[in-house]
Amino acid sequence: MKRFSAPLPRPVRLLSAAALAALLALAAMPAAHADKDADRARAAVQSGEILPLSRILETVSRQFAGDVIGVELDRDDGVWQYEVKLLLPGGSVAKLEYDARTAALIKAKGRGLEEARKKP
Question: Which fold has domain 50-116?
């Protein structure tokens, strides 16, 4: 048994196409925003305004035991900061904030953080 369906009316097809185009545009926006952020960060590293992520990760590994599970680069009040999430040996997660220009530790919080701190 064959089924035949009538084609959708033209206004419905146009509305469907417009909705699909809008969804595709919205889906592309975060990617475009991420690309712009990556370009700004790359330019800041190349100009010497901030240190590369590799230097920050070296600093983290010298100061704390644990595994990096996330990194964000933010600009708060004109100051670039790396926010590092660290999985500590005890299983808790610590949040470390570093000045992106100097690699100085600005803030550190998390349960078991003092036990994970390495001796200088």
Answer: Nuclear Transport Factor 2; Chain: A, (3.10.450)
